[in-house]
Amino acid sequence: MRKLKMEVDAYMSKNDENYKFHSTFGEKLKCEPCILGIDEAGRGPVLGPMVYAACFCPVSSKEDLANMGCDDSKVLKEEQRETLFEKLNAATSDFIGWIIHILSPNYLSTSMLSRSKYNLNSISHDTAIDLVKTVTKLGVDVKEIYVDTVGPPDVYQAKLQRIFPQIKVTVEKKADAKYPVVSAASICAKVCRDKVVNEWVFSESPDIEKNYGSGYPSDPATKTWLRKNVDRIFGFPNFVRFSWSTASKILETEAVKVIWPDDDEEEGDAASNTPAITSFFAAKKTQEIRHAFFRNNKLIQVESF
Amino acid sequence: MSINLNIHDKNLTSNSILHHLPCKIQANEEANVKSYFKPKKSLEGEKQCLSATFRGRPLDGKDIALPEGYVGVIVMEKNKPFSEEKLRSFDAVGCFKNFTQWYLDSQYTSENSIDMVCQTWATSITSAIHSPIDPKKLPCD
């Protein structure tokens, strides 16, 4: 594989954290009204980061961007994507700029598995919003944004329009195939994610093999790799998104059981305070309530140890 | 049941690093702590923050020192007897003066009581259990 001009080394040395970086871009993008496209790569996989990218260019250069031959990153071959990324990158001195936010698998796991669950759609929306804000702060005059949707497009569009009233917002399904500026963003995101996944540095052990396949739950190579790399106590290396059911199901059988203080809260509907249906049938626990001294000091009787 | 504690000074010289997690791990065995558990220190304003993850869940940590004059001892039982009446024997394998208490998203935990428990134990309970008893002060029949 050719050496890509994408500096992800800074991320690799701290791959449990998020990392945001952007290309250089010419003065043109600061003095002309610009369009900006947003797309992501690696939303579905159980492995590796989710990468968000925004690509932007002056409204007057729309045609030039379209002529570069950007298309939905999924219909392009890896080599074509890399070639296109290099073309995009070469144009950063002139009429193109890009910004990438790598959301580490560790960040995705801990967000989705925190006490107050932060779901993937909210993470995606917030990341996209942050990208627009960051680009604006860099001095780019963003006039129109095009976003590949996450969830229902009309709801998402209304949300973005409310946050950015001065910008014309377009949220659509398959925007990455319809708008060259979104295609360009999808190529940046995909090329970055592939590079990061291929070159992943396991902080847990240098001996962990990299034959993890595509990282999608449906890929047999990914499943085999997951099963092979279970640690009985810790579960998986932090390259794995623990919040994916593919990962948690493997741990149910291959790892030691872990009980958390908020395990009960997951049953039933927490939002409406409705208890789990099974709770009505279970025998009522009769528990002697001990003196507050014991309860406050977490002192319990131990019969065997 | 009686218990024998074997504590040799040589086992009490080096400080062990202890992590007290907010979950129950249903195992009692050696684990690859060094490879998988990597606490991070960061500054939030002027506050020192400790963070880590376990099984993909976010943990916030706090260093807790044992009360003055105390030392924590880690003991290991090589063979657990089958009968409850038999003498049990524990060997000291390490000691500690402080440990890290980990919370599951501490911002959602209302009480951080482990500090208090240490103090209560040291100031109230141990003195009540271990202080010498003056026979003259015992109630007589």
TrEMBL record, chain A:
Binding of a divalent metal cation: at which residues? D39, E40, D148
Q: What does this protein do?
A: Catalytic subunit of RNase HII, an endonuclease that specifically degrades the RNA of RNA:DNA hybrids. Participates in DNA replication, possibly by mediating the removal of lagging-strand Okazaki fragment RNA primers during DNA replication. Mediates the excision of single ribonucleotides from DNA:RNA duplexes.
**Assigned keywords, A-Z:** Endonuclease, Hydrolase, Metal-binding, Nuclease
Query: Which cofactors, by name?
Result: Mn(2+); Mg(2+)
- Name the reaction it catalyses: Endonucleolytic cleavage to 5'-phosphomonoester
InterPro entries documented for this protein: RNase_H2_suA, RNase_HII/HIII, RNase_HII/HIII_dom, RNase_HII_hlx-loop-hlx_cap_dom, RNaseH-like_sf, RNaseH_sf
| Family assignment from sequence similarity | Belongs to the RNase HII family. Eukaryotic subfamily.
- Paste the cofactor note: Manganese or magnesium. Binds 1 divalent metal ion per monomer in the absence of substrate. May bind a second metal ion after substrate binding.
**EC code(s) of this entry:** 3.1.26.4
Instruction: Look up keyword Zinc and say if it applies.
Output: no
Domain RNase H type-2: start-end pairs: 33-256
Top EC class, one word: hydrolase
**What Pfam families does the annotation carry?**
RNase_HII (PF01351)
Question: Which organism does this record belong to?
Answer: Clavelina lepadiformis
Name-wise, this protein is: Ribonuclease
Automatic annotation (TrEMBL), chain B:
Matches recorded under CDD domains: RNase_H2-C
User: Which Pfam families did the record assign?
Assistant: RNase_H2_suC (PF08615)
- State the InterPro entries in the record: RNase_H2_suC
Gene3D superfamilies given in the database record:
2.40.128.680
Descriptive protein name: Uncharacterized protein
